[in-house]
Amino acid sequence: MAQTPPATWQEHWFEHNQLLNLKFYDNDVAVYYDNDVSSSVTWPYTYMGDVWRYVKNLYGGFGTDPHLFAVYHTGKYSGGHPSTYFDASHDNRNVIDVGPGPWTSGGTGNDLDISTHEVAHIVEGASKGIKGSPAFSLWGDSKWAEIFIYDVYLGLGKTSEATRWYNLMQTSTADLPVAGTHWFRDWFYPIYHNYGGSQVLNRFFTLLAQYFPKSGSQYSRDMNWGEFVHFWSGAAGVSLKPLATTAFGWTSTFETQFNQARIDFPFAYGTGVASVYKHCNYGGYVTALGVGNYTLSQLQNMGVLNDDISSVKVNSGYQIQLFQDDNFTGTSVTLTADQSCLVANNFNDLASSLKVTAAGAAARVVTEIPTDNRLSIYPNPVTNELRFTTSQSITGSTLRILDVMGREVLQTRFITNSIDVSKLPSGVYTLVISDKEKHFTRRFVKS
Description:
This protein is of the alpha+beta class.
């Protein structure tokens, strides 16, 4: 049973000194007004509860008290601010405190935007039981909030608000890291759209909590730009260095930071059928590779340095061919099994390009995978989580996976743009997404 919020609450932070009155509460939200907020304003009762429930379902809990304390003023304090359960200043509660008002829109437009914006700060500052926002110095007060607001509107089915916000964000710019940077348009929305929607946002905070330096229950320092791109690449499952180059520019400092981050936090980007490592015995940074041909520039965009591979892992049924020179030229070595140190092959720190191919029957399977341009899937081959995007909305669709004999082995309803295939045996499958009007199919290899 949720705790019962107090009937009144005396503000005692910053310049705030209002006596707040509890207007509504349920198991997830407690809404407080000062005496200047009209009692006819009721939309926060439902909306803020829906937002907080959505947040907790996606990111997990935020402390022992399940409530979001949503505080509303009218004509005071200009904007708003958040606080989290880590902060004694707000009685260790998750709080949004907003002041302009008069909140009479009925729950549309800027009234929603400012309220949701403050919740974004709670998420960035207290997710996964860790206090702090290591990326705040990079994305500032609003850039993370922009994609958060968009995701919340979509998640709550407020498609008109999501469209309004999307259109508004097309011209939104910031001076970080350079003047005129389009954070939403060129960075966050492409990540969100292409690599898992709400789940990619959650994966970023999961990786932070797992890997980033902490002192007790709080982060011990801010991130640098290279670390920022590395952690978002981990969340997306692909190297985002090319996207970062387009969105932010790419300096020699970023490059140094990025390469160091991959050493300091050696998680792979997604899954593949082969992995290459910086050091012998699978040490240093790791890059997961799917079937394909990788020139030096492609490897560098994925974070693999020239002449820097010292060990490899190769899944059964696949092979990796390392070339001493770019564009698949020069001396080469082909490996069909794990190699803990390429010194034994006289190929340590020599690779400048490489090919990953399927061997034998597996090779024939891969070349037979058809293309449906309306449906994109990745990674392919896949080990755990198959992600997908479509050219049309698939809300309400059924997701089915068929084996090579056409037998259904998994069925679910569309919730997010991903599906867990970790329990499927290795083999070739077909993903089928369908409703009454649309039908998409795409084959993939489960490694």
